[in-house]
């Protein structure tokens, strides 16, 4: 009996890991090639629904509302108002009590009662039966790739900053219809999203595709990226949909370069891989060039920084933008090469070409980057939100 109970628990745990944490096969984001994004609201309708509709109306955008059956039946007037405003209505199940879903017959009833082509489980929870029931009911599982964290007791300004930091083309954003905090963070973030060039649409307008194993792995690793950014105070050089670099201020770790010895204050460049993963070579060249202008603005704002640099097997390609290259010592070269190969496979499904498989150092001095990519307003302070000096919480 204990063995059977243990196997059942293992099955539930594996199902939740594969289908909620990784999101394998779920609809969690769309193509990264266009700046369309989807605002999605769970748990409604609520006493805040009308205020949310008014805010969306003011900015001329549409969204998707995942409604709970109990609440929708209690407020049919709000359901009609959501539809009348042109928003998409989908299924969040009958109840929002995740513990009840561990009983298969309860989960079936929970998923069966309400119409919808998309179904979002409460908290994203998956049992071994969730995907089977969804297939039998003709529903797609809709998850997300960006949590607003509007359930946390944090200032709306900080939540808005974080949302803009991690917003990407094709993102599905998880929000909630109910908290006052959601309204406040959207009042700040939504105008910035539009100013930056994002286009909020419904899920149908976004046209997401199910996550393949590789895309599911990328989704599962996002939390590690966020923790690294917070720990090392990594900032985005620009917040536009295709601003491709994050920067980390640190002493230059070497090797010694002419006039730029080890320990020189520098900015290490980190490529925003998810933004570039579907770009063609010509698109990548254009966006890298534009993104380096944003890096130059960061350099201009910090008189201590003497160079920008990065390690990659693509270092030779950086010469196109004026970068110099330098070979690395054996062990750093091996580590940088393996890291580059891993990210190339993860984000583009490719392996390095044999003729350029070893990573090198690519760098530009302060004077060179400011000359090649002159900032338009080098002395101007960064805007907020969306141009914070430190990563959001």
From TrEMBL:
Region Disordered: list its residue ranges: 372-393
List the GO biological process terms.
carbohydrate metabolic process
The segment(s) forming the NodB homology domain are: 35-100
UniProt GO molecular function: hydrolase activity, acting on carbon-nitrogen (but not peptide) bonds
* Pfam family, any one: Polysacc_deac_1
Biased composition, class Pro residues, residue ranges: 375-393
Protein's name according to its UniProt entry: Polysaccharide deacetylase family protein
């Amino acid at each position: 009996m204990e063995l059977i109970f243990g196997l059942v628990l293992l099955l539930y745990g594996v199902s939740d890991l594969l289908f909620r944490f990784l999101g394998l096969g779920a609809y969690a984001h769309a193509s990264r090639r266009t700046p369309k994004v989807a605002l999605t609201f769970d748990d409604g309708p609520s006493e805040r629904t009308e205020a949310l509709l008014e805010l969306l109306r003011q900015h001329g955008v549409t969204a998707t509302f995942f409604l709970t059956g109990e609440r929708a039946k209690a407020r049919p007037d709000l359901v009609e108002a959501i539809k009348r405003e042109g928003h998409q209505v989908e299924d969040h199940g009958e109840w929002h009590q995740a513990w009840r879903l561990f009983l298969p017959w309860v989960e079936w009833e929970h998923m069966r009662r309400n119409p919808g082509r998309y179904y979002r489980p409460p908290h994203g929870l998956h049992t071994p039966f969730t995907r089977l029931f969804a297939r039998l009911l003709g529903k797609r599982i809709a998850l997300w790739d960006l949590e607003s964290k509007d359930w946390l007791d944090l200032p709306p300004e900080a939540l808005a900053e974080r949302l803009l930091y991690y917003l990407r083309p094709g993102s599905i954003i998880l929000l909630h219809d109910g908290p006052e905090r959601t309204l406040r963070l959207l009042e700040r973030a939504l105008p910035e999203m539009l100013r930056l060039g994002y286009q909020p649409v419904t899920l149908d307008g976004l046209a997401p595709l199910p996550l393949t194993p590789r895309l599911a792995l990328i989704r599962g690793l996002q939390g590690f990226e966020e923790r690294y950014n917070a720990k090392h105070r990594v900032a985005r050089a620009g917040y536009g949909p295709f601003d491709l670099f994050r920067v980390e201020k640190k002493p230059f770790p070497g090797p010694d370069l002419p006039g730029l010895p080890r320990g020189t204050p520098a900015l290490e460049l980190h490529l925003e891989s998810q933004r570039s993963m579907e770009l063609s070579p010509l698109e990548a060249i254009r966006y890298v060039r534009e993104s380096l202008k944003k890096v130059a603005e960061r350099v201009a704002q910090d008189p201590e920084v003497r160079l920008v640099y990065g390690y990659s097997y693509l270092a030779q390609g950086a010469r196109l933008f004026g970068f110099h290259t330098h070979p690395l010592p054996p062990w750093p070269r091996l580590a940088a090469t393996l890291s580059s190969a891993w990210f190339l496979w993860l984000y583009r499904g490719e392996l390095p070409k044999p003729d350029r498989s070893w990573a090198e150092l690519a760098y530009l001095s302060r004077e060179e980057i400011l000359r090649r990519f002159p900032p338009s307003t080098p002395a101007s302070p960064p805007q907020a939100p969306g141009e914070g000096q430190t990563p959001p919480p």
